[in-house]
Structures are given as structure tokens and as C-alpha cells.
Amino acid sequence: MGDADITASSWRQVEVGRVVLFSYGPYAGRLATIVEIIDHKRVLVDGPASSEDKVVPRHAAPLSQLSLTAHVIPGLPRATGSSKVKSLWEKEEVESKFANSPFAQKRAQLAKRRTLNDFERFKVMRLRKQARFEVSKSLAKVRASAKA
């Protein structure tokens, strides 16, 4: 028989230590980590943070309110206490890693776009048209030199 090629899935798994972002609800936009899996719809989360207004208290949260991030706190034991979670959170520098991730940067860009007024959106449109024109002009120059 032939050898089977087994690869891991690229899906983010619900696991203990996975850092999550609250999509909506009272803690929308805050980070937390999964401490325990209660059932297939709920998890126990704890979110220590550097600033007091970003802290998420330990509670059961439905998975429908959470977005799984790519970050995992390795070696986090199941149902561990808040002090251990906080020490591992700071050791792994979760907040700074998340802030530098493409996911967080895209969220910040979308939030900035939402605050633009009509005239600012018009200026963005004009700048994008100018950039697109410069790209097409340089592309046309390259094509012309390739034909000659």
C-alpha cells in the first residue's frame, strides 16, 4: 500500500490557551483567553489586560460572540487560576503580538475608515485613482518596451 500523506487542518481550533477577541456584546473589541471548554457552544474565558478598561472578567462566553485569533498561550493548564493566566499573558506579550498582527491592523484600518466624513472619503477615492493611474502608466511603458 502507498503511504498516506496526513496534514493538519488550517482551521483555528477551539483549545485551552487560544486567544479570542469578543466580536460583540458587553466586551466587544477586548481580548481574552480560553481557560476551559464547557461544551460545544460555550467556553470559560479570562482576559487579564494591562489597562483596567480592557480587562475581561472570568465568565462563560458563547462561541458565537468570539473570534478565534492565531495566537495561543502555550502550556496553559486547564481551568487554571487567574493569577497564572495573568503571568503567562504578560510573559507571552499577547497584547503587543495581537496589535502587530495583520488581523488587528485591518480592524484598525476599517475603524478609521468608518470615522471618515464624506469629503475625506472623496479625497481617499481621488488618491486611489491617482495611484491606479500611475501604476497603469508604468505598466503601459513596460508593455511598450517589451513589444519593441
TrEMBL record:
Matches recorded under Gene3D superfamilies: 2.30.30.30, 6.10.250.2270
Large ribosomal subunit protein eL14 domain residues: 57-132
Signal peptide: none
InterPro entries tied to this protein: KOW (IPR005824), Rib_uL2_dom2 (IPR014722), Ribosomal_eL14 (IPR039660), Ribosomal_eL14_dom (IPR002784), Translation_prot_SH3-like_sf (IPR008991)
Coiled-coil portions: none
CDD domains the record matches: eL14 (cd23702)
Entry similarity comment: Belongs to the eukaryotic ribosomal protein eL14 family.
An annotated Gene Ontology molecular function: structural constituent of ribosome
Keyword Hydrolase: no
Domain of life the protein comes from: Eukaryota
Protein keywords: Ribonucleoprotein, Ribosomal protein
Pfam families according to UniProt: KOW, Ribosomal_L14e
Keyword Disulfide bond (UniProt): no
Domain KOW, first and last residues per copy: 17-46
SUPFAM superfamilies from the UniProt entry: Translation proteins SH3-like domain
UniProt-recorded name of the protein: 60S ribosomal protein L14
Any one GO biological process: translation
One Gene Ontology CC term in the entry: cytosolic large ribosomal subunit
